[in-house]
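Most newcomers find our protein records easier to grasp once they have seen one. Nothing more is needed to start thinking about how sequence determines fold. Here is such a record, shown just as it appears in the course material:
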Amino acid sequence: MQLNRWPLLLPLLMLGFILSACLAVENRSADDSPDAVESPDSARPTVPPPTPVPSGGFLRLDGLTTRQVVVWDAELPAEFATTRTSLYRRSANRNWTRVGDLPIEGRLIADPSDPDLLYLGDHPPCLSEGDPIPFYRSTDGGETWQEVQEVRNIRPILVWPADNDVIIGSQCGLAISQDRGVTWERHLPESEFDLTRLAVTQLGLYGVFTSERDISYLRRLRLEDPDQPEFDEPIISFWGPGAIHATGDRILVGEPGGIHFSDDGGRTWSTTRDGLDDVIASVDPLEEDIPETELEEGLGIFALESDPASSSRIFLGTIRGLYISEDGGRSWGRSAEVDEVRVQQLDFALSGSILYVTTDDGVVVLHNP
């Protein structure tokens, strides 16, 4: 009986041999394929990169609207971004990675020479009785934060380019730290004037100081000795807050009365209002009372920045969105890519190919604006 089984088993054995050979050839072909990856991770599903933010869209991280980006060089990408409660950092592949929680909601700056060194703080509205706001430092890129004892109500603005130990901020007045944010000293040109805007330009450091009567003066500041900053005489005066930008010998100042520009370093000035009727007063606020309807609707210019690729192309952040000038600031038109909301800050990145527009509603990203 055993001999009689061979005629039945022999065809089955041959079929199994043929199937094994075919599988071996298939596996060898897969290993030799140019798409094969000799790595234990090759079987893991790849995570697709995040969808790029469309031009005119809000930068959202983990579904949350971004409140601020940190850019210290217009040639480079943004380094940090914040939501109301979290800090994110740009990774090597330019994706955003969550670092951790923020101890407070405030203004964040980083040291360009040591991006792991961060400063975070704010102050209540000037002339108000708000609760004191603590000041924080981080030495590990925001993974941990240390509250600076006995320092309150400091809004950090910038690290002084000539000396990274010197941090400049606002405590309503000009605030200066010479030990990387550990201690601060407050300075004012006159006791009744508060610092409402500070900008480093190619022509130097400029501040807008505003009185209780809302009269502002633009002054140049000199920090050869941070212990005793020097305040030049007022360059121009205007009503309300303002914004400043300078390139070469050209200085531009935006304020509720219009755009002032100088082509000789501030010695002589001209003013333009062309295209800005919806965001500035119909009268000179220093000469006449602003109509009540205009005050109720709101006025103001809060940010000025030029295109890194063309100094004659200027961007303006206003009470009602973003405006653009193609002729060096003499005439303006509104950009439809940003809603008619208050624009607080403008930051170029990646050689001007990206413009971050910080609004009251969040940060809008513009591509090749």
Remarks:
- Helices lie at 2-32, 292-297.
- Confidence is low (pLDDT under 50) at residues 1-50.
- The chain has two helices and 31 strands.
- The domain at 190-335 is CATH 2.130.10.10 (Methylamine Dehydrogenase; Chain H).
